[in-house]
Write a sequence for this structure.
């Protein structure tokens, strides 16, 4: 790095990571919508349709997982299903069982599912510990998918908070800035005392990231 | 004894009758479920009501009664024509429901003299009780201590780090007392404590709780098949959520401590009964 990073450069770096995610979710959304418009969808047909494109996208090592999660009852052979690949080996998830009970976890209560369901818009949840899919501290980007006048599920992708730290902290340090989420909580900060997940306590100037509920706070 | 058993059947079936006759009241009972599954619930409401839908309802009701232990393992179900008459559905509908229950392994049918359909309790419950039976008192206390320390610690830290909107999500995990599906109580109980663990913002802590829930949580949730225990549990769930909402670490910790202590008290009695 020859020149010193400015807050604007930090914003560009954040967008460089998240904007391609949004583009990918739009692609998945269109694929899934087309599949549902064509007739009844099964776990197998959905996975078959999404696998090549999703695995190609997940070659990006800065992502920990991604795919599509169905709304309850839209598949002809399973109520809840996660067409989701994650981890270094990009293992296929399928369904998530609750520990102890062995019952499938009803993920429809999770903010990454509910929020896009309620708002109809792109959502960025986190930082939070995800115990349904990755069991990691992540940021989840999700987008609702509609077909035949109803929501058939959400397309999504996970980024480890650690990945964001590795990617963004050097620049944020130089700029003396903090990346904050839509609720004003720190994600990565130049200030070592400002823990991830902690709210910013003082009012600061913020530069919003394009099309994302993220900002870079100065000072 | 015979009378009690018959009454139990009547209660279970009376509920099915009510459900089949009065769809609208059902949505009130399951308000919680409807809210989180709006699109599915809507689809169900506007689906044509034929005998096909009725078979699924009969099936669901019986499955719930079996899972919750209202219909006990080994009990003989009435014959198809009797069942159909009790429920006010066609014999073919009752048969269809039984076929589905058989496929789920919740009912076993034997042929010939003395044959019929019998309730088969889900296996996971058996396994949990078998595990309990194989444990010494020392091991039970040993595991309970680890569980207690981990979970109370989570509640304390979560109370310090939780936002109002995150607490709202927790409220949705609270189950109305009139729900009698034990499996639902158990999964909601587990999910509540997992969610609290996640609110510590620590992935390692959450993974530890996942391990604890699978290891010991399943045992602590055995008594949830008792209505009185469910009531006490619901009160403490409420207390815990309120403490988190208020950011009160001491109260959050205390509520989990009481929950584990009370569960363990009841579990020790069950343990004694199965070991004797």
């Amino acid at each position: 790095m020859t020149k010193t990073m400015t807050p604007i450069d930090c914003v560009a770096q954040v967008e460089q990571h998240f904007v391609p995610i949004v583009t990918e979710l739009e692609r998945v959304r269109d694929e899934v919508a087309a599949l549902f418009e064509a007739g009844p969808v099964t776990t197998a047909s959905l996975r078959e349709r999404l696998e090549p494109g999703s695995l190609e996208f997940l070659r990006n090592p800065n992502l920990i997982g991604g795919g599509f999660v169905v709304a309850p009852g839209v598949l002809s052979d399973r109520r809840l299903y996660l067409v989701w690949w994650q981890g270094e080996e990009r293992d296929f998830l399928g369904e998530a069982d609750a520990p102890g009970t062995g019952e499938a976890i009803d993920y429809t209560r999770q903010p990454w599912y509910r929020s896009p369901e309620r708002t109809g818009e792109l959502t960025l949840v986190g930082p939070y510990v995800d115990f349904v899919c990755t069991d990691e501290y992540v940021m989840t980007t999700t987008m609702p998918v509609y077909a035949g006048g109803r929501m058939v599920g959400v397309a999504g992708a996970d980024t480890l908070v650690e990945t964001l730290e590795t990617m963004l902290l050097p620049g944020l340090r130089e700029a003396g800035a903090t990346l904050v989420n839509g609720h004003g909580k720190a994600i990565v900060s130049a200030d070592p005392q400002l823990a991830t997940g902690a709210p910013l306590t003082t009012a600061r100037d913020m530069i919003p990231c394009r099309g994302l509920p993220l900002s870079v706070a100065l000072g | 004894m015979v009378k009690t058993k018959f009454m139990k059947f009547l209660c279970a079936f009376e509920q099915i009758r009510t459900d089949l006759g009065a769809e609208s009241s059902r949505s009130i009972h399951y308000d919680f479920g409807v809210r989180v599954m709006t699109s599915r619930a809507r689809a169900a409401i506007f689906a044509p009501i034929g005998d096909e839908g009725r078979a699924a309802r009969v099936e669901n009701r019986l499955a719930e009664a079996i899972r919750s232990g209202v219909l006990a393992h080994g009990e003989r179900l009435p014959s198809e024509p009797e069942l159909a008459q009790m429920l006010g559905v066609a014999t073919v509908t009752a048969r269809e429901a039984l076929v589905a229950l058989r496929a789920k392994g919740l009912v076993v049918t034997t042929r010939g003299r003395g044959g019929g359909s019998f309730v088969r309790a889900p296996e996971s419950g058996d396994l949990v009780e078998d595990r309990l039976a194989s444990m010494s008192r020392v091991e039970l206390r040993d595991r309970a201590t680890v569980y207690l320390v981990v979970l109370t610690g989570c509640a304390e830290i979560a109370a310090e780090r939780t936002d109002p909107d995150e607490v709202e999500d927790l409220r949705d995990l609270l189950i109305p007392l009139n729900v009698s599906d034990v499996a639902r109580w158990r999964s909601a109980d587990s999910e509540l404590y997992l969610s609290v663990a996640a609110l510590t913002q620590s992935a390692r802590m959450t993974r530890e709780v996942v391990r604890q829930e699978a290891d010991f949580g399943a045992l602590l949730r055995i008594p949830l098949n008792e209505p009185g225990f469910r009531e006490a549990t619901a009160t403490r769930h409420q207390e815990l959520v309120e403490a988190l909402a208020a950011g009160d670490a001491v109260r959050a910790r205390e509520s989990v401590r009481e929950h584990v202590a009370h569960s363990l008290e009841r579990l020790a009695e069950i343990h004694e009964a199965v070991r004797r």
In short: Confidence is low (pLDDT under 50) at residues 1-38 of chain B. The radius of gyration of chain B is 21 Å.
